[in-house]
Amino acid sequence: MNKLNCINDSQIVYDGKIRFPSLNNKTASIIGVKNDIKPHRILSHMFSRFKWNLSKPKLILSVIGGPRNFKMANSMKKAFKRGLIKASVSTDSWIITDGYSSGVSKLVGEAISENSHNTQVSNLVVIGISNSENVVYKEQLQELKTLDKSFSYDHQDVTKTCNDNYLDSNHTHFILFYGENTKNGNKLRGCLESELRKSETNLNISKKSNDFNLDKSVPMIQICVHGDFDTLCSIRQSLESRVPILVLAGSKGCADLIANALNQIEPNIPELVIESKILDRKIQFYDKMLHDACDCLKTILSFKDLDLINIFRLEDEEDSQDIESAILRAFLDSQKGKHFDNLRLATQWNRIDIAKNNILIGEEEFTSDQLSKLLEIALIDNKPEFVQLFLENGANLNNFLTNGRLYYLYNSESIHEEFKRTPIFYVFRDIFGLKNSNFFISFKKLRTFFKQYIFEDSDFKFFPFDIDLLFETNTDEQQQQLKNHLDETFSKDNKDDLGMSGFDQKWLNKSVEKNLELNLFIWALVFKRIDIAKIFWRIGEYQMANALIAATLYENLSLKLQNNIELKNISNDFLEMALGVLHSLEISSKEDVNFEYLEQNISHYGLDCLKIAVLGNQKKFVASSCVQNLLNEKWYGCVVPNDGIDTLLKVFYILIVW
C-alpha cells in the first residue's frame, strides 16, 4: 500500500463496501471519517489507485436543496432529471449530493435508476457526502473497520426514527462524517468540495486522458432545487468561494426565495424569507434563525452583479434540453472574458453547440499556442467537429505540428490505451513485438510498418527522418523516458520545456514543415479516427492517392482480421472517395490531363496513383473507364510507356483473375 496516498488510521472510522440487496446486490464504496479530518486527506483516498482510484472529473455538479418529502410538480421533476443526466453524460461529470434516499438526493438517484440501461449513465460517479448523525445503520457501518466483506445495507431491516435517512442505492460512493458537531454536514461537504476544486498535483491522479491537466482546477456548478435554511447557508458558502449557482425557480423553498429576491429592485428581505416557509415557526430560536436567514440572503444578493447566480425557470418536461444547456452556461457565464478556458471546457465537454453559440461570437482572440492546444485536445480526444472548428477559426498547422507534438500524438498515455483496442495494434505487436504497456511508436517503426504491411516499393518519405538517427543510438529505456517527458510536458502546456538530457530541444520544437495534412491524415488512420482522417484528406494534396492508400490499409487489415466487416466498409468508403476524385477529373479535365494525373509520381510515396491501385489490388478503381482508357492508349502505343511495365503486367494479371 502506498502510504502517501492513504489516510492515517486514526482519522478513519471505517472503509469498505456496502451492498444493496434491494438493487440486485449492487455495491458502493463507503468511507467514514472523523469530522476534523483535513479535506485533502480524503481526496488522497479518492484518487489513490490503492483505494477508490477515481480519475479527476471534468466538471462537478453539486446538487443541493429539497428536504425530505418536498413537493415538486411531476413535469418539473422529469425535466430536471432528464436535464441533469444529459449534462452529466455529455461532460463526464461527477454528481455530488448528500447521499440520502430522500429529498433532492432521491430525485438524483431516480434519474440514475431510470437511465441505468445507458452504459454512460451507469458509469457516472455519484457521490453522497453528509454527516452520519441521521444515517440508518450508522453504528453497524462501523463494523466495516474489521469486516472483510461488504456490508448488507437493506432498506427494510431496521426500524428508523422520523429523522433517520437511508443511503440511496443509486450512488456509487459515500463519505460520512463522524464525531461531535457533525450536524452541519453541508458545511463539511462544502469544505470538501472546495478542496476538490483546487489544483492537487500532489495526488496520485490517474491520467486516463489528455482532457484535463493536473494543474488545472476542476470546474463546479451548484444546482439548487427547492431547499431550506441549510440550503441557503450552503449557497452563501459556495458564492463566497466563487462557485456559480444555478437556481431552479418554480421548485419552491430556498430556490424561489432567491429568485424572487433577485427579481425585485428593493426586496423586503424579512418578508420574503417568511413567505418562503424555509423556516418552521414552531422551531426553537425561530427569531434568531430568521435573523440569520436574512443576513444569509443579503450576502447572496451581494453577488448578483458577478454573474455567479443563474436563475432558470422550469415550466414542464420539455425544458430538459434547456436545463442541460443552462447548467453548462452557468459556469461559463461566471468566467466571462476567459475565452480560451471556456472554449477548452466546451471541447472537453464535447459541446460544439456551446462553443459556437456562446463562446465564438466574434469578441474573442486566441494566440497561436492556445489554438494549437485546443486542436491537440480535439485530436487526442477524437472530437472531429472541434478539429474542424479550430481549423476554421485560425489554427495554423505550421505552428501546431512540431516533431515533439507529432511524437506526443503517437505516444500520449491516453492514445496508447485506445491504440491497444484498434486493429493496427495487433499488427504492430506482431511486427515489433510490442508489449501491452510501455511501448514507443517511433517514425522509423511507422515507416517500417507501412513498407512491410502495405507497399514494399514505397518510401513513405513524409515521416520526419532526423528522429531515426536520434533513435539509432538510444535504448528502449531512453525512448520510454522521452515518451514520459513528452506526456508530462504537453499535458501541462509547457512546450518550452521539451529539452532533456540526451535529446535535442531544437529538433523537438522544430516544425515538421512538409506534408502536415498528410502526417495528420496518416495519424488518424493508424488510430482508426476516420472522421478526423477525412478532414485532413479534404484539405490536403493528392486526394486520390491518399484515399487509395487508406483503402488499401483497411482492406489488408480486414483480411488480416478474418474479413472484418467494419474495416472492409471503411476500405470501401475510401475507395469510393478515390473514385469520386477520378470522376470529377473526367468531367472537368481533358483525357490527357487525367492520364498525367494517374501517372504523376508522388514523391513522398515514390509511387503514382495507378501503381498504388494495382499494388493495393483495388480492382474497382482499375476497372474504371478512365484507367481502362489509359491502358488502351498504352497498349496501342498512343501514350509513351513509362518505367511501369511491371505495373501493366500486374494490371492485366488482375484483369485475367477477374
Automatic annotation (TrEMBL):
GO MF annotation: an example: ligand-gated calcium channel activity
Cross-referenced Pfam families: LSDAT_euk (PF18139), TRPM2 (PF25508)
Keywords: Ion channel, Ion transport, Membrane, Transmembrane, Transmembrane helix, Transport
Tree of life domain: Eukaryota
Gene Ontology CC terms: plasma membrane
Signal peptide range: none
InterPro entries according to UniProt: TRPM (IPR050927), TRPM-like (IPR057366), TRPM_SLOG (IPR041491)
Every TRPM-like domain range: 359-412, 483-623
Ion transport found in the keyword field: yes
Annotated membrane topology: Multi-pass membrane protein
Protein name as it appears in the record: TRPM SLOG domain-containing protein
Species in which this protein is naturally found: Brachionus calyciflorus
